[in-house]
Structures are given as structure tokens and as C-alpha cells.
Amino acid sequence: MRIISWNVNGIRALNKKGHFDWLINDSPDIFCLQETKAHPDQLPPELREAPGYEAYFDWAKTKKGYSGTAVYTKIRPEKVETEMHDKKFNDEGRLVTIFLKEFALCNVYFPNGGGGPDRLAYKLKFYDIFLEYIEKIRKSGLPIIFCGDVNTAHKEIDLARPKENEKNTGFLPEERAWIDKVISLGYVDVFRHFYPDKSENYTYWDMKTFSRDRNVGWRIDYFFTSPELEKNLKSTAILSDIFGSDHCPIELTLSF
Q1: CATH code at 143?
Q2: Containing structural domain, residue 212
Q3: 218: nearest Cα among 146, 168, 161
Q4: C-alpha–C-alpha distance, residues 98 and 56, integer Å
Q5: Distance of CA 20 to the CA centre of its chain
Q6: Separation CA 221–CA 6 (nearest Å)
Q7: Which residues are catalytic?
Q8: CB within 8 A of 62, min separation 6: which ones?
């Protein structure tokens, strides 16, 4: 089974550039998109009903053209959820969870902590609520995969300029501590599982400064799995040669 995750920075813009066709032609079993910036009613038929896939969407309820997530799957889910137990964190369209026989797959677009103290507090609380959400699923007996734009680089190796960003959101100690907590609970950062010491591998670059040309980036997009699935991990990749967004796709292959 092959899964792709990608912050597309606007699914309609991605489609106009022709890059949605790349996803369909690449034909993963599942692909998870973040920052879709659209209500399903705003999408053309080829995005609402991609050939060979069932599509599930979550979208911002209070702000048009903002946030949003989507999962396209060839495997029919047993159940789909787009809400966590704390309703305050369901309005921005940040979650689609599909429940398969082997595991639950959570596609998440985590908040950015920029914009002042209130927004950072929202991000940190979202982190905590999401962790409670997946732990509840896991304790019911179903393994977890979660993927998406976490909006935090975990270690110094995960961004090009760690010293310059020590006091910037995306690399703050309290943001990074949440990833520490996730790992302490047994969740596996799949990229680091396969490549513990690999540097200069990033998933996001600032477009305004043309930082992708110089590979001045951040690894803020992840696949995490609960430890029960570690035996099923076959490979992972950062597809940095695929363009169309300020993020690149990431890929996970499992032995299912």
C-alpha cells in the first residue's frame, strides 16, 4: 500500500497547473491533501470525483479559501470522521480520518503558530486535543497513521537555519516538545526511522525568498505511525522534485 501526503497550497491552483494530474497518474492507493482552500461545492468534477478514487473533504466553516483537507482513496473506508471531541477545533477544516481494516489514517493540517500569542496558544491546544483523539482510537485497538503538515520542525537537522529560527514559530521549544511527546508515546517518525541522520531533506521552502532554489527549507511534513505498524513499514520518500506548491509531497509504502 502506498500513501502520499501533500500540502498543496490550494487544490484548485494545483489543478490549474496540471499537478493534480500527476497525483492521478502516479496512482497511489491513498493521497492526503492539506491546505486545499476550498469547499467541495467550489471544485470542478475532476476534483470532486477523481477517477478510481473515493474523496472525503473537510473545509473551513467560518472563512472561505482557508485551510481545508481532503483524502482520496481507492480503498473504501469503514468509517470517516472530520471532527475531534473538542468542537472549538473543528471549524477550520483541518482533519479527515478514514478507518480501514488495518489502521486509522488521519490526514491533518495543523495550525501555524504565527500571528501572535493567541494563535500560538491555539496551535498548542490543537496539538494536545489531536493527541487525545488518536490515543483514544489507538486504545480501542486500531493502529494509527497520521500525516500532514505539522508546521513544526522537530530537530536542528530538520531545517536549514536552526539558530536563526530558535525564537520563531515552527521551531519554538514548546512546539518541538509536542513532537517529543508523540515519540515518547511510541509513535514513529517514519522518515527518521529510515534515515536517522540524513540532513538537507526538507518538505517546505519559502516562496517569497526563492529558498527552494537554494534548498533553504524545513521538514515540517510527516508520516507518523503507532508502534504496532513499525513491522509494516517498507519505505518512505520526500519527493522534492515534484513542484506545484511551497511544499513537496511525501510518500509512505507499507506491506499491506
Answers
A1: 3.60.10.10
A2: 2-254
A3: 161
A4: 9
A5: 17
A6: 8
A7: 149
A8: 91, 92
